[in-house]
Amino acid sequence: MSTETTTMPKQTPLHGEHAILGANFTDFGGWDMPLKYGSELAEHQAVREAAGLFDLSHMGEVRVEGPDAATFLNTALAGNLAVMKVGKAKYSVICNAEGGIIDDLITYRRAEDRFLVVPNAGNAPVVAAALAERAAGFDVTVTDVSADTALVAVQGPTAESILLGLVSAEDAGTVTGMKYYAADEVTVAGIDVLLARTGYTGEDGFELYIPNADAVALWKALLEAGSGRGLIPAGLASRDSLRLEAGMPLYGNELTLETTPFDAGLGPIVSFKKEEDFVGRSALEAKKAEGPARKLVGLKGLGRRAGRSHYAVLKDGNVVGEVTSGQPSPTLGYPIALAYVDVALTEVGTALDVDLRGKPQPFEVVDLPFYSRNK
Fold first, then answer.
1. Domain assignment present for 262
2. Helix, strand, or coil here: 340?
3. Are 168 and 47 contained in the same domain?
4. Together in a domain, 240 and 298
5. Where are the strands (E) in 96-227, listed by range?
6. CB burial class (10 A; 0-12, 13-18, 19+) of residue 328?
7. pTM of the complete model
8. Residue 79 included in any domain
9. 93 has which bridge partners?
10. Which residues make Cβ contacts (< 8 Å) with residue 157, sequence separation at least 6?
11. 360: domain CATH number?
12. Which burial class, exposed, middle or buried, applies to 310 when counting CB atoms under 10 A from its CB (0-12, 13-18, 19+)?
């Protein structure tokens, strides 16, 4: 008799709503998440042209509070969080002592001594544990509230107008005046939320943090408010194609413990100007000085076939890199990919091939992002 136990994927507070909507589910980071509800292409297009509603309740949330909160985060993360103003957000990474990326995350400053750190779903327990361990000696409290917190996102050109239909006149000014990578507390459909103008799609949009108990009511209210503005529920498949077009890295693909911020083109978010000796600082200083052997680049397919994760990148038949993410771009109409390539071959316009199961196909290095709503 087998003694193996099967761990069932966790479910978000909105799992029942997704089932009612006919979602196809997939295991993502240990969570049973909607992959798509109908056509992932239709969901992708809705976000580019109108709006999509995403359940992101699998993401982590870690509160960092106390007199030393800012100084502590400057020792725990690679970025300079202490200079961030209240009400703003900052993208950063948490590294190990060797400079490898444990996770990329967003941190919101809610008050002078209060922050909210949002790691990726699969890494949330690891990040929460690392922050708790690194908090030793600081006057700070680290609290993992992931299990109690739900998160939904409205992404797309009509996202703002959808929210305006659900807030008071007073909060309407907060919504319209909110800048990118900012957050504030508002009431949406009678529910108190932390509203952030952030996202992972390359479009304008908002992410709404609420207690689990409010998730279903908020989800239904947003669906109803958006029904006349082109909003549809969207799953992980469209989220992935949207973020790839926007040139945004995905942990486990572009970012791993074996990659440093300099490999991934994230050097600017590492702060060597701050005084704190953050974890991985000395290793990253050495990495910056020597330069990476391979760098992350964008590749545009010149044919019709797409490269996929782990496909080899070739130059004159020799392996010079590896694709980390790739698929046909629904918006642009040609294959796109992110890949780590030998640094000597990363200039825009460089001709390369991707080995598509024994058949080299032509690609060229292009600027990132592939798609920008401002272009």
1. no
2. strand
3. yes
4. no
5. 101-111, 114-118, 141-144, 149-155, 183-188, 191-196, 205-211
6. middle
7. 0.96
8. no
9. 104
10. 48, 49, 50, 51, 203, 204, 373
11. 2.40.30.110
12. exposed
CB burial class (10 A; 0-12, 13-18, 19+) of residue 137? exposed
For residue range 234-250, what is the model confidence (pLDDT) as tens digits? 999 999 999 999 999 99
Residue 174 within a domain? yes
Directed axis angle between helix 40-49 and helix 236-245, to 10°? Answer: 50
User: Are 329 and 335 within 8 A, CB to CB?
Assistant: yes
166 and 27 housed in the same domain: yes
- Closest to 344 in 3D by CA, of 328, 368, 324, 321: 321
- CATH of residue 189's domain is 3.30.1360.120
d(CA 219, CA 112): 31
For 25-63, the pLDDT digits (tens) are: 999 989 999 999 999 999 999 999 999 999 999 999 999
In total, how many domains does the chain have? Answer: 2
Q: Is residue 195 part of a domain?
A: yes
Q: Which domain holds residue 212?
A: 15-59+148-245
Q: How far apart are CA 341 and CA 367, in angstroms?
A: 14
Count of CB atoms situated within 10 Å of the CB of 221: 18
